[in-house]
Amino acid sequence: MAIHTNSERCENCRSRSFIFDLISEQDREILDKAKQEVSFNAGEIIFKQGAMLTHVVCVTSGLAKIYFEGLDKKNLLLRLVKPSELVGGPGMFVDQRHHYSLGAVEDTRVCFIDIGLYRELVFRNKPLAHEVMARESYHRIEMYEKLVNLTQKQMPGRVAEALIYLSTQIYESAKFQCTISRQELADLTAMSKESTIRILKDLKESGLVTIEGNIVEIVDMKGLEDISQRG
Amino acid sequence: MAIHTNSERCENCRSRSFIFDLISEQDREILDKAKQEVSFNAGEIIFKQGAMLTHVVCVTSGLAKIYFEGLDKKNLLLRLVKPSELVGGPGMFVDQRHHYSLGAVEDTRVCFIDIGLYRELVFRNKPLAHEVMARESYHRIEMYEKLVNLTQKQMPGRVAEALIYLSTQIYESAKFQCTISRQELADLTAMSKESTIRILKDLKESGLVTIEGNIVEIVDMKGLEDISQRG
DNA sequence: CTCCTACGTTGATATTTGTCAATCAAAATA
DNA sequence: TATTTTGATTGACAAATATCAACGTAGGAG
């Protein structure tokens, strides 16, 4: 972990958050000066469930995971976070604590934004307030769907779903280097690492995907969607 | 289902929503005139997943359930809603659709509030906006916990958890008449009806609860909490 | 270079959980 | 009253899934 005081100006940052474009000129100036860019190595924790929520975070490069630490050290991977995405944390308006952890999957850079400032920005800029509300709601909808996936689908459906998610939402390609580990894939689908591996093997043998180490290619997207939907 | 045009004034309603107390005098007047009280019989649907989101709903008497309709007609019961609780629906700021259904568990009365009006109230009254945000966030936190409960605990833990929830949050008594059916209890814990019944029997035989039909009494709360926490 | 550790993989086995079928009781209907 | 119908219950069984143990492999530390 290293702090970069001389980080880029938001204005020129290709991974800046949507918030920058929904606030006043003056607020942009303030935000630009206040942000703190920090880089994390793969595997490091960016913020930790239970800790005080002092900042929100914008990922500027790399890949991070939002995960919930459950029973017996078991983690539930809620979603992955790509550059330009803002991670707030629902504790912001509740108890000033983090209710999940954020960890670096790959080497990752993030900008920290003070929570007090962020809150002010939200209440000072109506377009931002609308957008924050909409995104909050959107994530809640995603959550319901995740809940159904994990409780009503069995393993092949969940893994198929996860592969589609990785391909379309995260790596944005039918063929991708899967930078999350098998354990993390297991945490994403709420199953054991061994079962995850076995299902991957099955999908491979069915000819729906090819897998060489962590290089994954979706060969038959239609077939994969069938499995995902059937459950 | 029957419409009551001459329903009580919000001002005198003991089950009015928190929103009434966070808006201006004039807005209270407007809200009072605009609301439409409707009563539903047990089992009836108040609004349906997928339908256009035209109103938010405040439960004024009875008991309702928020549930997600998943695969193969299987429902996931997200939470129960008591009088004075407001049910918005996350689609409000997204796609104007309901992303879950609301159903009457007992005979239930609700007030419908036009979504356009509600939105205006939220953006016109800052205290309300804060509160709505806070509640939205709170539900999201609950969601994470539910996700862990359902994916990481096994059946006895889930049922114990559900009974504690019913006792402390819903019926507010150690001994209560469980007005939700075994099927609904199964939907709440994401398991089959038969398994739910078996676990209830186990808990009864362990002396943690007594169950006579739908009268449930928690005898050993500590023991129940242990089972719930252990998973 | 070698050891060590973390990750991936596989097989055998045990546990958890769901499904199916039958029965019973209570409530609704005719 | 007789008749459905619905919800609750139980047992037997099958399917899904986790756990345990063993082994390989690749990368990092010394």
Description of the structure:
2 copies of one chain form a homodimer. In chain A, 41% of the residues lie in helices and 24% in strands. In chain A, the strands form 3 sheets. A 5-stranded antiparallel beta sheet of chain A has the order 1-2-9-4-7. Chain A has a 4-stranded antiparallel beta sheet with strand order 3-8-5-6. In chain A, strand 11 and strand 12 form a beta hairpin. In chain A, helix 4 packs across helix 7. The radius of gyration of chain A is 19 Å and the shape is elongated. Chain A starts with a strand and ends with a helix. The relative contact order of chain A is 0.13. The model of chain A has no long low-confidence stretch (mean pLDDT 93). At the A-B interface, helix 3 of A face helix 3 of B. Chain A binds a DNA duplex (30 and 30 nucleotides) through helix 6.
CATH topology of the largest domain in chain A: Jelly Rolls
> In CATH, what is the class of the largest domain in chain A?
Mainly Beta
Poorly predicted ranges of chain A (pLDDT <50, ≥5 residues)? none
Most extensive interface between two protein chains, with residue counts: A-B, 37 and 37 residues
| Cα-atom radius of gyration of chain A | 19 Å
Tally of DSSP β-strands of chain A: 12
- Report the sheet-strand fraction of chain A: 15-25%
**Residue share in helix of chain A:** 40-55%
| Global shape of chain A | elongated
Structural topology:
Two copies of one chain form a homodimer.
Chain A: E1 2-4, H1 25-34, E2 36-40, E3 45-47, E4 55-61, E5 64-69, E6 75-81, E7 86-87, E8 101-104, E9 108-114, H2 115-124, H3 126-152, H4 155-170, E10 175-177, H5 182-189, H6 193-205, E11 209-212, E12 215-218, H7 221-230
Antiparallel strand pairs in A: 1-2, 2-9, 3-8, 4-7, 4-9, 5-6, 5-8, 10-12, 11-12
Helix pairs in contact in A: 2-3, 4-6, 4-7, 5-6
The structure holds a DNA duplex (30 and 30 nucleotides).
